[in-house]
What does this fold into?
Amino acid sequence: LPLPERALISRIRKQTRLAHPLRFSKGGNGQPVVVGIGDDASVLRIPRNHELLVTTDFSLEGVHFRRHWHPPESVGHRCLTRGLSDIAAMGGNPMAAFLSLALPAKLPQRWVDGFLRGLLKLAKRFNVQLAGGDTAESPNGVLADIVVVGSVPRGRAVLRSAARPGDRIYVTGQLGGSAATLALLRSGKRKLDPKSFRSHFFPAPRIEIGWNLREKRIATSMIDISDGLSTDLSHLCEESDCGAEIWEEAIPRARIGKAHEVDLDFALHGGEDYELLFTAPRKTRVPDTIAGIQITEIGQITRNRRIMLRRPSGATVKFEPRGWEHFRS
Amino acid sequence: LPLPERALISRIRKQTRLAHPLRFSKGGNGQPVVVGIGDDASVLRIPRNHELLVTTDFSLEGVHFRRHWHPPESVGHRCLTRGLSDIAAMGGNPMAAFLSLALPAKLPQRWVDGFLRGLLKLAKRFNVQLAGGDTAESPNGVLADIVVVGSVPRGRAVLRSAARPGDRIYVTGQLGGSAATLALLRSGKRKLDPKSFRSHFFPAPRIEIGWNLREKRIATSMIDISDGLSTDLSHLCEESDCGAEIWEEAIPRARIGKAHEVDLDFALHGGEDYELLFTAPRKTRVPDTIAGIQITEIGQITRNRRIMLRRPSGATVKFEPRGWEHFRS
It folds into this structure.
């Protein structure tokens, strides 16, 4: 093995305690990973009568993060968040993650350590095992691809395609915090303390909420807000073949740092908040909070394919998806 | 969505006939992919009493392929081969693939088409569905990460770690063809016709053989030869805590183009042949061919941790792993 690969695998092994694959645990101790890092493929066990969820997400330097803006712990955390959030949006339970990681030859070891620390801390919080992956030397920049596999009871995954006219539309948490932070980073005016801007640097995947909404059969459809409210709502409406009306005043705007609420545009179009957008039938009682996070009704599904925004004045305007493209300028 | 992403997804959808996710196929028609491209995560069904296999493999421009050496069909084929070969080495049945693909802004559409054509043609041959993935714009070069998921009857995966002293060592097919072709490419002396150098440009993953060896309980341990015989044998011995003796004369050397057998060094150390290396108890009858491919006994597992090569003269020398590093110079 090339040296950086060997070092990385050794590091990953140490940090995950998967130093030796678990072999076959005949006892069926409930751990999903039967064979982890160190064989041609990993072996996982899916709970009975469950289906498998699989999602893959790139985190590329210069596209999804910048090394001079994002501490390595944040890059690792956000890398895994992207995958966990997709599992959350299906109402699933994450089981294991796989990391393909290509590193430039001259990358300091402490950067790799920080990256893995951030990723593995989040993995531990959700009892997700790092069960395998691939490593390579990157010709340019840090390249990561995270795979998260999860499970969901058979036939119960919450899809994007099952919203129905009359359903109410909800979001978790507050919106726009990540994009507003990015605007501050981009302005270059000051150094930001990641701890005060967690929605951007350490966003929380809404696993418990997605699980709860599926388990209690509240959500008819669901998507995570990774590309921005306007874009992800358009995905959901397209898959469900319906339209929507969003009430501008109802949109919960994030507060970042010590500032007031973020500008409306960040909440409407900013990506990478990793909140959930879901629909529920009009008569379904939806809790005000789930797992301590605010749930806000922000509009309703309509029959025609138009997506409209209702202004505080009562006027409605077209609500066009802006297409979040990370921080490409 | 950014335009290249939209175009790519549209292209992938057309080519896979997964234009619309299959939704829930209540009938249980045996197709593993319940929901494919187009939702937050894909939903797959694992056969009863089976475990899940997961493998991820990078294919990075400048590391695993070069655009002026490898036609796009070959890059797509080899990308998926890497994943399928890992599933083969576990004795598994591949079910679905996920492709994370980042493309430079200026990449010609016909290159993307060729890449997908090569990948999907191979996928079809093994009834593997392209069930999801991620797309991004790449700052530098084509970046692909392939995930293949497969299944294997519970507790029956063939691991690297179960070789036992006295077991005989076998390989499928012939070795060294891919590395010898690469040497020709590197020398730059002439243009190669990919059709005459298939072991490099279009290697065949040994799915049927791996499946057969597991199903008939022939193989005690197995690994695919992606990093070269010397390196992959060392992985197998390390995981099985044993050594090996290889008989130089027995090693089946590939023929490429119209040439004679490749040089011994290519067969001993060259990577990316994607043949299988496996062990079987001394008394087990191993067929001479499986699925039309030659199976060759090349040595035996020993108790001590040394890996030795027995020369035609009868002398034995240390058989050191050389560590295949693709075509990095």
